[in-house]
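Teaching soon. Invent one.


***
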Amino acid sequence: MSDAAPSRHAFGEPEIFPVEAYISEDYARAERDKLWRKVWQQVGRVEEIPEVGNFLTYEIQDDSLLIVRSAPDTIKAYYNVCSHRGRRLVDTPPGARNARGDKVRFVCGFHGWSFDLEGRCVHILEKNDWGGALTEARTRLGEVRCETWGGWIWINMDPECEPLRDYLEPAASMLDPFELQNMRYRWRRWIVFDCNWKVALEAFNETYHVAVTHPEFMQFGEFRGWAKAQGIHSNIGYDAPKGLEENQAKLRLGAGADPRLSTAQMQAYTWEQVNTNTTQTLVDAAQRLVDELPEGTPAPEVLRHWLSTARRDDAARGVIWPSVDAEHTAKAGTAWQLFPNFQIGHALNNALCYSARPYGYDPDKCIFEAAVLELFPEGEAPQTEWEYLAADDPRWGSVLPQDFSNMAAVQQGMKIGGYRGNIPNPKAEGAVASLHRNLARYMGAGAPRPLDQEP
């Protein structure tokens, strides 16, 4: 949306907004032209297509995109459709999230028209029958804007769109120091949920739910959080305990009388039950705190020792953490919501990312994706694929299914006649309101309203 100026609305004003964005099929259909064909979307990682001819596909409602490594230093994106009679060039295998492969030519399975990596049509059966009317411009693949940032590939179907970097600010500048482009997948999973894509995304872009949905974490400390509007994006984080302002990053210290013990317990629980927001190096370093520090060590010293020893251990195996000053870390918070549908939970040596998108035009379903990235020694990153995992699969652990359990219930609850609209917590759920403020500017409907003006 080239004329969409960033939202300047400050969090803090109680608001209410309607539920049509979640439950209306008309709204879901309008999203295609007003939203998805206007915004930058993250479609994959650069390292997924490292060699010339490598490709992957991306699906969003009616549109299918073909993302291709066309040259050693160039990635291009095309509409995944033959210019002759409209057949898709690459089909997604049944049950797969997308297609991936390696080709020198993309050959249409209907009449054999062929296209090279630059999108040119290089073979047309009986071309002379058109009497010279088939020009290169008429037959080549339709190209869409494609750029990279943070190690991700981004596409935009709007030929008048602003550059990716401009679109991502200020998130890009705040996240650049974390060197996300150097991380690689530890695991990546996807699932189809019985809820709108916004319901799925909003289960993770606020901290207000932690105490009730994840009560077991409360034994490790306070998880009262905040959210801030950042242009069309937003970021979230946790309040720092008094006297421990350093503890505002994703890598948090456990609370209680002995932070050595609580940190070790929280790290072990996180690793075993959710396998996100930490690494084996951090877990191991936390388990040694009791042996390496005396009882009564002040919490700030425990935090510094834990992180410095984990940084040292990683460096010894060839994993170099970026250096980010404490002030920048505090401002960056623990996660960024990149409008409209991608979240990056960043840390110095790992990241937890979520995305959600429509499942066709059914407002009651969505495709949800979760992925953990990590810094690995050169050449030692695991080989991963997108894996479909049912919600009750034990490999999700115990924590994420707690979030999953709310989704269909929320989707159905918003259809109940007596429900009057969403009223998010102005501090902790500000990212939810920010999303709808900016959605309304694209969609022309559904803007939050001041709560004190409602009957």
